[in-house]
Amino acid sequence: MWKKSHLAEKYGYTHLSAGDLLRDERKRPGSQYGELIENYIKEGEIVPVEITISLLKRAMDQTMAANSQKNKFLIDGFPRNEDNLQGWNKTMDGKADVSFVLFFDCDNEICIGRCLERGKSSGRSDDNRESLEKRIHTYLQSTRPIIDLYERMGKVRKVDASKSVDEVFEKVVQIFDKEG
Ligand code: C5P
Ligand code: MG
Q1: Where in the cell is it found (predicted)?
Q2: Which domains are delineated in the chain?
Q3: 140: CB partners within 8 A, 6+ apart
């Protein structure tokens, strides 16, 4: 199956997933945030941005320090709420431009079904119906308004993610071909 990270690389982007960075921090021995992160994840809530933005910024800085050409990022799963957005603006003001937002739009029940399927092997503590319903609630309450805001700025590129893996891939490729 195609991965966002491979596709991103093909177009010169480094893929950074906010959720993956939080999960890595959660399991890092000695992390002072491990328990807090786990609680937010299980409850489908959004971790305070101070934590997430410092993980993101460090990953971006490390990537660019290793190779100064690598200054394009596909940031996955961020910003998820107003707090995320404010943290981004505060930290990245004058440092980073947002070219566009990829919006994988998908019916809630289809998402839940796919994550339950993934849950058979993912080991994720939030791939269960209870957490998934909380995540949908958070999405509708806190994330949708952020997408709407970027929509009003003309920055949203929407993909119908209820379609097949191949169809979604095709559509994302079209977007990257156009946006560069
Ligand atoms: O994007 P992903 O499905 O990996 O996110 C899983 C969980 O990680 C979210 O439900 C949320 O608890 C946490 N998260 C967060 N802030 C983000 C991205 C993810 O708190 N920006
Ligand atoms: Mg993710």
Answers
A1: Cytoplasm
A2: 15-97 (3.40.50.300), 99-179 (3.40.50.300)
A3: none
**Distance from Cα 173 to the centre of ligand 1, integer Å:** 25
Q: Which residue has the tokens 């909380």?
A: 134
Q: Model-level pTM?
A: 0.96
Q: Which of 123, 142, 133 is nearest to 26 (CA)?
A: 123
The answer to whether the CB of 84 falls within 8 A of the CB of 21 is no
Pocket of ligand 1 contains residue 37 by CB under 6 Å: no
Instruction: Report CA(170)–ligand 1 centroid distance (Å).
Output: 26
146 phi and psi angles, rounded to 5 deg: -70, -40
Long-range pairs for 20-24 at CB < 8 Å and ≥24 separation? 20/76, 21/52, 21/55, 21/56, 21/59, 22/47, 22/51, 22/52, 22/55, 24/55
